[in-house]
Fold Translation initiation factor eIF2B subunit delta.
Amino acid sequence: MAGESNGAPPSGASIAQVAAPAPANEPLAATNPEKLTPAQLKAKAKAEKAARRAQVKEARAAVVTAPPTSQAGGAGADAKGGKGKGKQDGQLGGQGKGGHLHAHRPSVSGRRPSMPPVERDVRGGIPECFSHISMAKRIPLSQAHKDVHPAVLVIGQQMATFALKDSISRLRATLLAFRKVIEPYETPKGNSLSRHFVPHVLNPQIEYLTECRPMCFAMGNAIRLLKAKVNKFDIDTPEDEAKEGLLEWIDFLINERITLAEYVIAQNAAQSINDGDTIVTYGRHRLVEKTLLGAKKIGKSFDVTIIDDPYELGGQELATVLREAGIDVVYSPNLGGLRPKVAAASNLFLGGEAIFANGALQAPSGTADVAMAAMNAGAKVIVLCETINFDRERVSVDALTYNEIDPERCTAESFRLLFDNTHDKYITGVITEFEFGGGNSPAQAILALLRKQEDPLIA
């Protein structure tokens, strides 16, 4: 009869399955696939889900092509004592509806998971001998340390994309961000600000900024002074008093070493320009621009030759500003024909990114070529630089020790360095906010003065 089952139970079937009578309206048991218990169905579904997750993970990693999960799914189903649900004998247990393998349908929508773009290794073509030179890179916000302040996160992204480019603009933004870090800070119970703030609060901010772009010398000097100021606080100093002292110190550093320094340097440099002079400059530097505009404002009559950086083209903007101020300008888009351009020059004004202890100048690439040509032509080479950019300890004799690789111009065939190194013998003098230095080693006298000037900052 249709409702009875004779003979031995089929292999692998449970006693409950054999003893349970089939409903009268169902076809013969011989033509039905075996049913799975709820526990087996749950285990089978769990195994298939795990297999799909594993495959999607492998696909996203893009390491190798993911193997079909149907075999793994079938093996998992057999291990649980059953075949694929609702399928005839001979079909793979890992198949889904419609007979499609899960390997081809890892998502609910039936489409392959979108492959994340593989990030290009921009340093892949850099030779090993230049591997020590750093390069700016954008750090995903999700990878930043949890203790990094939102204001510092913004500054880091701006530095990585060169929205904040020169050393002083980076320094100013960093100090203002540190101000926002200090204001809400509260010392944990059982600690003191002088012992807790630097390692647990300040250092994560510094590490993140350094990962985004190598730290400039101005930032390094300011952070060194800031840490020294924190360490000067007595362990019993009240938190409010210490915080107020740090905030006042940051304001003083911005006003004295950045804002006032910029004004004094431009004023002193403008006084060194005489009527009828031909001033040559390279690219666009804010101190040189303020100097030329200041000299025109006090009635000096002179003309300017701008030799532009062919990669940055900032000289175009400088030429526009100077012409609008009524200054005669000759513009050259590159270093071609450099010697005749500097032959009639009276002074060459250059802006510096940093000055080392041996008097060497770090400046945008191309500066050294212009300085050497001007010196050989008999022109004075004058560098305008704030003392916060001076490095009192390190020396530099080439452009390969302290430098950066331009991330926008780095390919498998070539790369470009952002800065070059101008030896002190090609520099006539340096104008800072403290004094005008002359001679072949203009930095030496200024470095001695710096030690006296920085002592009050950390006292």
